[in-house]
Fold these 4 entries.
Entry 1:
Amino acid sequence: MDANTNRSSKLLSLCVFCGSSMGKRLSYAEAAEKLGRTLAEQGMVLVYGGGDVGLMGIVAEAVMKNGGKAIGIIPRRLYELVDQQEVSELLVVQDMHERKALMEKKADAFLCMPGGIGTMEELFEVWSWRYIGYHQKPVALLNIEHYYDHLLEMLKHMIEEGFLHKEIYEDLIVSDDIGYLLDALRNKATTSSAAPFLKKPERRNHN
């Protein structure tokens, strides 16, 4: 990863993080289908986890059904355990670390839908990578059915307790509107700079 790598002024590819489960609300699946369809209509390449299960399978299926392009990236262990969606390109890698590094490399931005601990891990990793300057790519949260409201409150608590800079929190794009998020990601992808919030840590005073 190179923070100084030149990127296109357009948002050409989007990495989507989401659950390998469907969740309990139909609206989650409906949002996944709408996102995939919108990506295809806008000519954006989907980069995702490669499986044919849960919300990730719905997003990829919608992209392909609407004439779009989807790139799946899956570790060999999961490749042997789960079915794969018929996609434009399926890359089988050795482990989760290689998977996430390749997803970051192939995407111009990141969007996180509802999901579990794996989705959370992916979100916080790419968000923290942006913060420390490993990449300049914007990150968004699709907050369907107020799914992430409690997480957002926890992040505000981190700010209050001095463990998170307010600017970092405000850098995360949050909405329940897919069109708004894609426009905001596209705008930020053309204006972001490396490590915009990286600050030298304060030293403890031992006196």
Note: The mean pLDDT is 90.
Entry 2:
Amino acid sequence: MSDARPRLTAALAGRYRIERELGRGGMATVYLAHDLKHDRSVALKVLRPELAAVLGAERFLREIAVTARLDHPHILTLIDSGAAEGFLFYVVPYVRGESLREKLNREKQLPLDEALQITQQVASALDYAHRQGVIHRDIKPENILLHEGEAMVADFGIALAVTQAQAIGSPRVGCGWARRPT
């Protein structure tokens, strides 16, 4: 995606200013960006090109719109989504903190009370989403963000769209241990 960064920067000019890459995963590259309209930092997630090609812009936007209605204190809120110059992207608040994976890598084991609090918050978010008819499909420590003592579940929209694309033969994404057998 680094070769595409100048094209992405040009495609999103006037909306978002890309500041730096935060990370890459099987589904997307994540950038720290500045929302020019609202003067705030955001996380801009751009789908991998091969995944974007399978999904298509219309389908991606339709699928991610399902998650836009999720409103829960432990679900990372969708701010924006779109298609620009062949890029499919979505935008969420930038959370200063770390993922549960990063915390587990550093601490190896969490105190029981903290583990229970995180579990309760994630379970509450998933229960809410399920009652809205939305299933995450890629829950893992990397998709749980920790900020000021609170857990937030991330990547609902991408999990829904990608799982449905897998059914029509797209590249496999997600982690092996959390996927259903094929």
Note: The radius of gyration is 16 Å.
Entry 3:
Amino acid sequence: MRCLAAWDETHDVRSFLLAPEDGGRIAYSPGQFITIRVPGPDGELVERCYTLSSSAAGERTATITVKRKEGGVLSGHLHATLTPGTVIEAFGPSGQFGPTKADDKYLLLSAGSGVTPMLSMVRTAVDLGIDLDAVFIHAARTEADIIAAHDLAALARRLPNLRIVTVASRANGAWDGERGRIDAHALARLVPDLAQRTVLCCGPEGFMKAMHEAALALGVPDSRYLEESFDFGEVDVDVPADGRLFRITFARSGKSFDCPENLTILQAAKLAGIPMASSCAKGVCGTCKCLKTSGSVDMNHGGGIRDREVARGFILPCSSRPQTDIVLDR
């Protein structure tokens, strides 16, 4: 995809307008993400998932919104180098996070850059004329950290059944919005009919854990609580001194390595120094998907692979632990 434009949302968040390099269409649903692959600061290829923040009603362009993370491998590099005219590799869109019924009632909960899928949902509703019934609560550190603040206000004016609440945990004296942190008491006050709503939540792991617990306490069943996160910290693994080892073989390259039964195939490949394309490492994005030609695995994924693909023999190495020796079509 080619970058057409880039602009600052806040002091550490930047948005990038992208379009297929061949001028073709890009179709996606609000809440979906793309995986991009670009050279990192050291020249090595790095892959990351970014939720599309633009309206899904468009067919020619899409926008990603990237928060620069302290010590992050890619985010700061993108801020500095992804400029108009730059071409990057992109895969997808992927993911199943988003509204499932247009006539349902929703609570959209986000913190930090977790606002991006919610922006796509609301922008899409405006563009398609959907009367979205939603309370949209977004948390940020200060008022200066609220992504797309002016756009949020404009969107609220165009959707009569949308109520947007912004919360600043460290607001200054002039802030007239909500203050502090969102907890069960705040949710009960801000959303009296919460138990009747489907909750969509996106943000840092700690925020989502707290919101999940609060929603459950206020009567929202797990079946109506959905969340998404791209917190790609390194996975710490313990390799047992004993236990079974299974041989993983890449049929095309001829590479092979041993995988302890308690590790995923992706974890074992990294320990063996064998690169495998991956991004979320949680079974969400589908980047690592490949065909298994022999063997059996225990796969617990997060929606990054379809049932029909599993039936054809595809697996997600990031979510698959071997039960026998495995051969992959790689």
Note: DSSP finds seven helices and 19 strands in the chain.
Entry 4:
Amino acid sequence: MEDYLLAFILFLPLIGGLIAYNIPLKSGIIASSFLSITTILAFYYLSFIQETLWVFQFEWFPGFVMGFAVDRPSAMLILLVSLISFLVHIFSIFYLLGDRHKDRYYLKLGFFTFSMLGLLMSDHLILLFIFWELVGFSSYLLIIFWFEDIKNAKAGRIAFMTNRITDLILFMGLLMLLGSRNDGFISNLGPLSADASGKTIGICILIGIIGKSAQFPFFTWLPRAMAGPTPVSALIHAATMVAAGVYLLFRLFAIFDPYLLNWIASLGIITAFLAALIAAYQTDIKWVLAYSTISQLGYMVMGIGVGAYHMALFHLWTHAFFKAGLFLCAGSVIRYLSIQDPVAVVQDMRTMGGLKSYLPITFCSYFICMMALVGLPFFSGFISKEGILVGAFSWANQSQNGLAFSLPIIALGISFLTAYYMGKQLLLVFFGSYRGEKYLKRPQKSWTERAPILVLAILSLGVFYRIHFLGGDLSFLEYWLGIQPQVEGAGMTPMIASSILLVLLGLGFSYWNYGRQGMHKMKSFNSSRLSVFVQNGFYLDKFYMGILVPSFDWLAFKTSKIDTVLINPFVNKMSVSIVVLSKITDLFDKLIVDGLISLMKRIMQILGLMFTKFHTERIQMHFVSAIIGLVIILVWLKFAL
């Protein structure tokens, strides 16, 4: 039964997308209906899965077996992807109202959901990489959905090429890992060897992971990927695709040695800090959330590096809900302003303001999701983020290295930055008065807009993770992740109190800058060189496009010159030599080989004619010849003896 159930969960989104594509007028309803069934089946499966691991294996070709496997963590994420994809499908009915390519949109959305679910179910390295690539390709199709705009097409190309480069390195690492093991099943993998080959494998896999999860130095593609529809950003750039790298890191945690895990933790905290700093200087509502996503993914990577991998996975779960909610709220704002004030730059927060009076449901949902993101008590983000911070401090205590404490200290500082830039966004978008040129009107009510963001806001409350109706008396953390309550924060009260204090200070600082004087006067943005430098992502894009790309172009040009000057003449001369040699060989074949064969043929013909004449005489001649021969033999024998 489990085989059929999981097959339905895997293929229903794709089937729904195909049917929706062929019935354009009802595409949104059809695709959403199939996702609703997928979500129900995923929840049903999650409700009865116990400790046993579901495994399905098959022989791809003789001697090579691959397979799928689902345990508790992957079952959780299957439900997560199905539910958020369903809510995004519903919201898209509102967001893409009037778009003439809705049918194509839902087909691509179903294809992406299918690919992501396949990745979560894969238990073999090669099978996982196949779905990994399908996730990347389907996300590219969604990013360039409005490809008529050259900027969107360029953004999609940058995202696609960045991921292809890191995916190639990942593939090399997976092949080396597969070659060093008897099989490629993830559930059977053990630690890598401590020699150079083991470290090379680990580094290659890590590069692929940080490319997909937009970690430093490969995070520049994610903000540009915001060119796609905002619901797409909620699904693939907040809840699922970029989290795939963290999920793979979680799955392969056992193969990394402590030395490489230390580097993973350091890389995660660097990314989290840099992205939070950049987010604080952004003016685009979606770019703030994009860099916030990168920062939170850095938290998760750091959590895995310090050994708090279960809490990192839990933060992936909570982050998916509140960040998808924030993106859908941003989509609600963008859609509303694009209708009310068509000439406005609808994603620039400097032209917004006062929208809480016009979009009260959006404001309330945004506020709840924001509180979860900054990590205040009673919200889901507080539980998961503080769990990672506790793990970081425990790791620093055990490392007996003073520098190790820099990680949790920087993580605390990121709490301040997160609260600051989210408070700034809240004030600029929803408070004060509208700074555009048009007079705003109240929007028409739409349940396809409000229902998804309300559901995501409710799921961002912390109460749902302190109880768990599927696990009896156990909480969500205890039942699904095996985390005991004392691991969450016992003995770490000063650290948690410091985190809460820094969050409150960050919110207060944002109010000091952007919310004073009745919240209707916006303080001008800093235009200093440093702020411009940070706002532009430290000009990493400029570095890549201005130095790395020209360097590769120069290398390609020089390589082509070598090909033209050296290789091509050599190949041409070799080809001429081969042609001449073939002509000589042909003449030798015709004159010598064929001549000898013709001579032998002529000799055999002559001999044949001679024997033919002999055999055509009369039979009397044969008898006479035989008698004469017999007489000669007898005479010889007589005299010889």
Note: Residues 424 and 615 are 118 Å apart (CA to CA).
